[in-house]
Amino acid sequence: MTKPEITPISPVLGAEVRGVDLADGIDDATFAVLHGAFLDHGVLLFKDQTAMAADVQVAFARRLGPLHTHPAAPAEHDDPAVFLIRTHRDSTISNGNGWHSDVSCDEEPPSATMLQVHVLPDSGGDTLFADMEAAYATLPDDLRARLRQMSAVHASEHVYRGRYADRGAVDEGVTYPTAVHPVVRTHPETARRSLFVNPSFTVGIEGLDDDGSRQLLADLYVHCARPEFQIRHRWDRNDVALWDNRRVQHFAIWDYWPHERCGHRVTVQGDRPFFDPDGEDPPPSPLRMSLGRLA
Ligand SMILES: [Fe+2]
Fold first, then answer.
1. What is the distance between the alpha carbons of residues 112 and 230, in angstroms, rounded to a whole number?
2. How many CB atoms lie within 10 A of CB 99?
3. CATH number reported for the structural domain that contains residue 108 in this entry
4. Of 2, 67, 230, 233, which is least packed with CB atoms within 10 Å of its CB?
5. What is the whole-number distance in angstroms between the Cα of residue 98 and the centre of ligand 1?
6. Which residues surround ligand 1, an ion (CB under 5 A)?
7. What is the whole-number distance in angstroms between the Cα of residue 265 and the centre of ligand 1?
8. What's the 104 CA to ligand 1 centre distance in angstroms?
9. Residue 295 — pLDDT band, cuts 50, 70, 90?
């Protein structure tokens, strides 16, 4: 077994992993350590990596579950499980340049996403991650109680229609997914609760009128974007990020045009988001009190 060295990035979210090169493949004991760290920290950032062969990346992702099929991504790689992330001079839009949880519009959205970036701009192209467990835990009690009763609609027509036309994807006759998910979801592996709405896919809260829905979502997004919940990853070439879409949102900053950024993404199929009313809310935290005083 290779002994991974795991160093938290903030007390809230994320850890750097060193001492293991994923390109070499990993054994079961190493995977068990990494899986535990993934559940503990929500985002793992693997440093000092070499470029993984596609089948090695796919094999790692498969240890976390069956793979997810993206509803819109163009088939550009020999292995259909690999989604090419590529933004360059001629791009008119960039993947993930806004807060989201990957493909939350699916009935069963991805649990985990694994991305290795092979080509980077000289500067820029950082990725932000935000912990929606901390966001949930720091809301006032009465608001959390209301949110626990709510469901939201996640749509994707507005996100995906025509999005990959310049990469050969034809979507005539394609229906893009829409799903209704609980606003507060229970993590299927840790049982912890998190907020599960995001400004990219969530189009409304069920049972509220348009204004009420828009206002509540806007308030939640302001809260979710607080820096206390975030880490910012400044990529080195071949870094690998592995994040838990059931817990975090991310934002791939496109501040480097006309330069290029390319990588390989493999995504793991998750289960249907659910809320367990028998679970427990996290205890009051000083962070909640502090945010309350600032509001
Ligand atoms: Fe994403």
1. 18
2. 16
3. 3.60.130.10
4. 2
5. 9
6. 96, 102
7. 9
8. 10
9. very low
- Total domains present in the chain: 1
Q: Give the DSSP per-residue string, 219-250.
A: HHHHHHT-GGGEEEE---TT-EEEEETTTEEE
Q: Is 102 assigned a catalytic role?
A: yes
Catalytic residue among 102, 131, 239, 244: 102
Largest CA distance in the chain: 55
Active-site residue 264, yes or no?
no
DSSP state letter for 12: S
Q: Are 97 and 251 in contact (CB under 8 A)?
A: yes
Nearest to 101 by CA among 131, 78, 71: 131
Written as one letter, the residue type at 238 is N
149 alpha carbon – ligand 1 mean position (Å) = 27
Catalytic residue among 41, 250, 261, 288: 250
Q: What is the pLDDT of residues 103-155, one digit of tens each?
A: 999 999 999 999 999 999 999 999 999 999 999 999 999 999 999 999 999 99
Which of 41, 68, 70, 100 is catalytic? The answer is 100
Say how many Å lie between the CA of residue 147 and the centre of ligand 1.
Answer: 24
Alpha carbon of 150 to ligand 1 centroid (Å): 24
pLDDT one-digit tens code per residue, 238-270: 999 999 999 999 999 999 999 999 999 999 999
Domain holding 171, by residue range, is: 5-294
Q: How far is CA 97 from CA 93, 102, 127, 199, in A?
A: 8, 12, 9, 11
